[in-house]
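Moderator note: this is an archived Q&A kept for reference. The question asked for a predicted structure of one protein chain; the sequence and the answer are reproduced below.
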Amino acid sequence: MTAKSFVLIAVAGALICAMLAADKSGEKSHKLTSISPRKMADSLHAVIAADRDAYARLIVQRLHADEHRLPATENWREARGLPVHAQMLREAGQNIQKRGAEFSYTLRSLWPINENYGPQTQTEQTGLEHVAQHPGENYYTEELLGGRSYFTAIYADRATLPSCVACHNEHPRSPRRDFKLDDVMGAIVVRLPLEF
């Protein structure tokens, strides 16, 4: 099963859990009244973050950093290695869009190695600054993009493994080289349309 399949299955599971949690009476209900955009974004983020963590720990940390069996590099095809954590997240996010998903997610940073992954909107800039200054708080807002209203949620993306820190601190294009474990390195941005 691919990482993309896991995301789709986990999103379905998150929706079912949200529906069950919404029924406070304890009785089973088959009628979905509503799910708040915030709960939906939080559920999606939980799935995305879990997949990202699993890839980082079980694949990159083990095969690259611990066992030195494969390189983890942006040029993974040529090097016959592993995509870096950010590439896996972006690949899955793009694949979800190709499948027609109405929501989107991406990785952004105030210190991107690739400048294309810096903040692209004022909302992203504000949200990235907020989670960098308040790592325990998510940033939620609504925004208008391309004439469509979105609920946007921004979640701190932390350096959870030594391989995260080493990659960013040692990369020749990295604008910041002093990351430590648990530092905020960027953010995952989740967008849900508020109108269909």
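Archived answer notes: The helical segments are 3-22, 37-66, 76-79, 85-98, 122-133, 162-170.
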